[in-house]
Amino acid sequence: MSQIDTEVVVVDAVCPEAAKVERAAALIRAGEVVVFPTETVYGLGANALQPRAVERIFAAKGRPFSDPLIVHIADEDALRDLASSLPEHVQELTRAFWPGPLTLIVPRGRLVPALVTAGLETVAVRMPRHAVALALIRAAGSPIAAPSANRFMHISPTTAQHAFADLNGRVPLILDSGPCEVGVESTVLDLCAAVPTILRPGGVSLEELRTALPDVQLTTRQTRHAATPGDVHDEKGAQKAPGQLFAHYAPAVPLFLFVGSVESMRGAMLAEVRRRRENGELVGVLVADEDVPVFQGSGALAQSLGNASAPGQVAAVLFASLRDLEATGVQVILCRDFDERGLGLAVHDRLLRAAGRVIEVS
Ligand code: TXA
Ligand code: MG
Asked: How far is the CA of 200 from the centre of ligand 1 (A)?
């Protein structure tokens, strides 16, 4: 793909300047791609109803056409235009969680190009809770299809600088409204399944969803070793279980995830640090505040994700911390696990996907 100049424009996250939003909207209307902030992660957007524009998303990202996109809308009426029918529970869910980090899988309406959904008969729709995203969708005058604004297989961007690092020269414009509030992607909820099923845990927790939808269930996790990009695609190239592609958030440096009790994780990680330091390796550890003293003097570069009992804060800094550690030049990242309460479920899921190896220590 030919290189283009990428401009980064700073936009107020609360009261977006209309002229700046309009510049981005004009690009969208012209069939171009634009990077924009949402409350979860930055998105790489294009007019969802124009197949040519949607193609540019896949080209800029280097993403295979087999992975379907989320369509972003700014008002609930737009959902009726995109869906062929509205499944049960839609109203309770949109009332409780929109705008916000909940993506609903509904039957695909005829307006939605097959390219957006990778040929599936369902479409993923969400209304983001970010003034810039909402203003952009309104000004563009169309729904915006957008995956996370990272290169395929890299970590999702939570700042405009992350998006720039991955997409410089591949997109004309990045709207920069500072760090994303939630820090992990939206929860993807399949309303076309027999029982509403979470395909990807994210910014709306399982506990929160249960308040509106008591029988919601989690998809059965694929075993890590069975899930390689090759074997989760059917013969038509569409993913059998979209969103379930493991090693999707991989950092550029190998990451080992330690799973077990806090004491055993710390012990095993420290032993691994010592072993690798003896071989002269540069080792990064990704831990919680309360673990930091354990690694003092160990020679590892310790990065804290904050207090382990505040999963919302851990989620908010997770992707930025992974990118920061990558940039230090460490040869390996050893990471502790976090418990699955609240946004901890999404944190745990992203760490599993990032991990080259999971080491169970209890
Ligand atoms: O928070 C977010 O969701 C961000 C921001 C930009 O909105 N977007 C995002 O998009 O994470 P992406 O493309 O990186 O992830 C979308 C996920 C993928 O795992 C995809 O497989 C799944 O949603 N998905 C999309 N359409 C689907 C469908 N029709 N059925 C099942 N899963 C679908
Ligand atoms: Mg993504």
From this structure: 8
